[in-house]
Design brief:
100 residues; alpha+beta; Alpha-Beta Plaits; four-stranded antiparallel sheet; Autoinducer 2-degrading protein LsrG; Dimeric_a/b-barrel; AI-2_Isomerase_LsrG; oxidoreductase activity
């Protein structure tokens, strides 16, 4: 089994009036990514325990190229276009998985 070597951690702060719509849409995005992209190994959606308007994504990919391919998919572009107006703040961290 091939192990992922690359991860992305994304933190969103969503405008409160859009949190329900965003939550539904980001969960669909996670499912689409794992089902449609062979290079997407994991796509978790988490909510901050103390602030329900903060959503955290943890995604793993076979490598950085697989993440680049993810960003070119139709479902990524559709998601990005739809949710961008709902986002107050966004932070993206690109990470390399450590082996030990």
């Amino acid at each position: 089994m091939i192990q992922p070597t690359f991860a992305v951690a994304v933190t969103f702060r969503i405008h409160s009036q859009w949190i329900d719509a965003f939550t539904k849409r980001v969960i669909q995005q996670a499912q689409d990514s794992v089902e449609r992209e062979p290079g997407c190994c994991q796509f978790d959606v988490l909510v901050d325990e103390s602030d329900p308007n903060v959503i955290f994504l943890y995604e793993t990919y076979l490598d950085a190229d697989a993440f680049a391919e993810h960003r070119e998919t139709d479902h990524f572009h559709d998601f990005d276009q739809q949710v961008t107006p709902w986002i107050e703040l966004k932070s993206v961290r690109r990470l390399n998985l450590m082996k030990g």
